[in-house]
Design goal:
The complex is a heterodimer of chains A (230) and B (288). By secondary structure, chain A is of the alpha/beta class. In chain A, 37% of the residues lie in helices and 14% in strands. In chain B, helix 4 packs across helix 5 and helix 9 packs antiparallel against helix 10. The chains are: A alpha/beta (230), B alpha/beta (288).
Chain lengths: 230, 288
């Protein structure tokens, strides 16, 4: 299971600055289990955002938002609401945010940080798309993760090595992640996001916190070990 | 004097570079550096360029400094995490080295140790910021230093990148993060360079145009095919091909490029890549 936690509400609110009409997306998979993006949390978020003066144009809780093939199909019934929105707030793992960004030409804001993928890579096969860094940057990068899409995991823009939009390393099979991010942000009229200087990553956030280590599968594994020790 | 000090005085800054050897025989490298004495304002020392393991930039910068030559310590984020980078910055200052060029670094798999783990804990922007923090007496997490260093921080840009905008956005971040001078990737098209300089004029930072000496027509074609943001026009390739004395032609082309572009920018960075002994001739031919 992909374990996420909610970003602090002020951070979410800041990411929505200048945007009035918001469409909220949740997920009935891991995000529901983590209580970060199930129906309950989506409705709660809608309420909180309304209190902050935002207009919630709609919401959808999709089963397995990480399944890119399904996302478009599942969001289709909400097309008009989504088209009318300034942006989407996606209350799931980084895969869900990226899958949504891949099918909707709107700014997609992450509402969660992934702190562990628990051995699961989600339903969007082919590539590692979330590094479980614990401090999701997708808000700044057009819904394309620079840590996984850029060979060097650069967070402040491209190196000088890309040629024709391809990475300096294995260009025949790798696109330049920052070229994709740039094109996406340009398309969304959101290039100012790229101008923000991001702090060096705090890699210590990748370590699951102690309280989480006492729950879910860690607890199961520990019990198994204890049982086999007996 | 540091590069920024020279540029601020209105001096047209001339830099060249030496590449440390793979091994410990430093005689030829030092000879090359000696040839540049009095001709250049500073000498860049590359940091395991192209991800090839070799003698490091920091000890060589120190050797140059001991000999009264002004080094530019090139520093990539490829091989060191933030602890080692900050420590080496402190080390550089204690050795009298102040010019630091902050680079991302090539990807490890392109070098001679493709098995290595690439670090990239910081990127060029956060490295500049970290250096700036050290100058203010603090490390990256805010701990106080016993004695603060002072640097002249540099960064790089590729004026020929296509599209250029992502490079410009990053350049702006580098300047905001603390870059005091900029060296460019090789430029062979003065007209394009002119429009690049117009686009970055607002940053108000000294820019040293990059000149890579052409060894042959083949080298030019290789760069056109493989090096991002570098384009050698056909007319120059033609000149190289037809030249009877290739080395002389190479010097002539480099000098002409400098002459054509020196009024546009604040300095030149000559990358001789194996032709270091020709650098004094280039400078002379360019009338600098």
């Amino acid at each position: 299971m992909i374990i996420s936690e909610a970003k602090p509400f002020p951070e979410i609110l800041k990411s929505l600055e200048g945007e009035q009409r918001i469409f909220i997306v949740g997920c009935k998979g891991c995000a529901e289990a983590c209580q970060t993006g199930g129906e309950t949390q989506v409705l709660e978020m809608a309420k909180q955002l309304k209190q902050e003066g935002k207009t919630i144009v709609g919401h959808s809780v999709v089963d397995f938002l990480c399944d890119k093939a399904l996302v478009k199909f599942k969001l289709k019934p909400h097309e008009n609401a989504i088209v009318s929105a300034d942006s989407l707030l996606v209350m799931t793992c980084g895969l869900g945010v990226q899958a949504t960004a891949a099918v909707v030409d709107k700014v997609t804001h992450p509402a969660c940080n992934v702190i562990n993928v628990g051995g699961s890579r989600g339903e969007w096969r082919g590539d590692e798309r979330c590094l479980e860094c614990g401090d999701c940057l997708l808000d700044y990068t057009g819904g394309i993760c620079p840590l996984t899409a850029c060979t060097k995991s650069l967070i402040n823009g491209p190196c000088g090595g890309a040629k024709d939009g391809r990475c300096e390393f294995e260009p025949e099979s790798r696109e330049c992640g920052w070229h994709l991010i740039y094109e996406r942000l340009k398309k969304l009229g959101n290039l100012d996001k790229m101008r923000v200087i991001l702090d060096a990553k705090d890699w210590s956030k990748m370590r699951p916190p102690q309280d989480l280590r006492s729950t879910i599968m860690w607890a199961l594994e520990r019990k198994e070990k204890e049982a086999s020790a007996k | 004097m540091t590069i920024a000090e020279l540029a601020n005085q209105g001096k047209f800054v001339i830099t060249a570079e030496v590449g440390p050897p793979k091994g410990v025989d430093i005689r030829e490298m030092l000879e090359n550096a000696e040839l540049m004495r009095g001709k250049v304002d500073a000498i860049n020392v590359t940091d395991q360029q192209s991800s090839v393991m070799r003698l490091g930039s920091l000890p060589v910068c120190s050797l140059l400094k001991e000999r009264g030559l002004e080094p530019v310590f090139q520093m990539t984020c490829r091989d060191r995490n933030r602890i080692a980078l900050q420590s080496d910055l402190l080390g550089a200052y204690t050795l009298g080295i102040q010019n630091v060029l902050c680079l991302t670094g090539d990807f490890v798999a392109l070098g001679d140790h493709p098995q290595a783990k690439g670090v990239f804990d910081l990127d060029s922007v956060s490295l500049l910021r970290a250096a700036k923090n050290l100058e203010q007496g603090r490390d990256m997490v805010g701990n106080e230093l016993e004695g603060a260093p002072s640097f002249c921080l540099g960064a790089v840009v590729t004026p020929g990148a296509d599209p250029l905008e992502p490079q410009l956005i990053k350049l702006e971040k580098k300047v905001k993060a603390g870059a005091q001078f900029i060296q460019t990737q090789a430029v062979y098209e003065p007209e394009k360079f002119e429009s690049f300089m117009k686009a970055v004029a607002y940053l108000n930072v000294p820019i040293l145009v990059g000149i890579v000496l052409l060894r042959s027509a083949g080298m030019a074609r290789f760069m056109n095919k493989n090096v991002a943001g570098v384009y050698v026009p056909e007319s120059l390739i033609d000149e190289m091909e037809k030249a009877e004395k290739r080395m002389q032609k190479s010097v002539e082309i480099a000098a002409r490029l400098i002459t054509d572009m020196k009024s546009l920018c604040q300095g030149v960075h000559i990358m001789a890549i194996g032709m270091e002994k020709r650098v004094p001739e280039v400078i002379e031919a360019a009338g600098l």
